[in-house]
Amino acid sequence: MTAWIETLAGETLLFNLLGKACYAAPDREWLDALVKDDIFAESPFGDAQPDTKAGLSLLRAWSRANHDGISDVALETLQVEYTRLFIGPGPVVAPPWESVYFSEERLLFQRETFQVRAWYARFERTVPNLHREPDDHIGLELSFVAHLAELALQAIQAHEQEGFQEALEAQRCFLGEHLLKWGPGWCSRVEAISGSEFYRGLALLTRGALSELSEQLAVQIPVQPGA
């Protein structure tokens, strides 16, 4: 189980980071910590994936450009880009909600939203703004994968083989039913549309992490929907 401990620990760290980065608008304190702690020097999970390497390269370049701290201009630029990509006003260019990609009308709070909510509830998770925001936000789904990885890690440490297998199987099913059906395509969209090294790097790093999970858990990445 030693290899699994290392893998799951790295997965938990990376997916929690990606979930926060995709879910919340950037703030100065968090960005400064990323640079100060040299977070993008390497990846704790999926470091051999080409997308991971490409993403880290962009994020290291961004870190070097901000090594003296995040300026007001740099902070505002990232916040404006986050809003443009994921919130609006106007058409959202990279919708971060799963249901949009499977609805002809590009609607929120569709079947996928409630399916994802049921997954969260099964493992005692709820979204921060239940009933006021869709549960199938990319950041929340990434964080949920981190939660499942942490449960698997805890089961190993407690010598609970059944719990370990249950957490792994939950990952496989959730990825196959939800995140892998649209997440890689979302990453490609952000990479293509964003003019920011930071968000292009995060998109590549996320796609690399999803590719690594697909290989490790033997869950195929299907053809991605458009939006």
Description:
The chain has 227 residues and is an all-alpha fold. It has a single domain, classed as Orthogonal Bundle (TorD-like). Helices cover 65% and strands 0% of the residues. Helix 1 packs antiparallel against helix 8, helix 6 (138-157) packs antiparallel against helix 7 (161-193) and helix 7 runs antiparallel to helix 8. The mean pLDDT is 95.
Q: Could you estimate the helical fraction of the residues in percent?
A: 55-70%
Question: What is the overall silhouette?
Answer: globular
Total number of strands: 0
Distance between the termini: 41 Å
Q: Output the CATH class name.
A: Mainly Alpha
Mean of residue pLDDT values? 95
Count of individual helical segments: 8
Q: Which residue ranges are poorly predicted, with pLDDT under 50 across at least 5 consecutive positions?
A: none
Kindly report the name of the CATH homologous superfamily: TorD-like
- Beta-strand fraction estimate: under 5%
Structural class: mainly alpha
Which architecture does the CATH hierarchy give at level 2?
Orthogonal Bundle
Major β-sheet profile: none
Gyration radius, in Å: 17 Å
Number of domains: 1
State the order of secondary-structure elements, H for helix, E for strand. Answer: HHHHHHHH
CATH topology: TorD-like
Salient structural properties:
TorD-like, 227 residues, globular, 8 helices, mainly alpha
What's this entry about, in short?
With 227 residues, the protein is mostly helical. The model has no long low-confidence stretch (mean pLDDT 95). The longest helix has 33 residues.
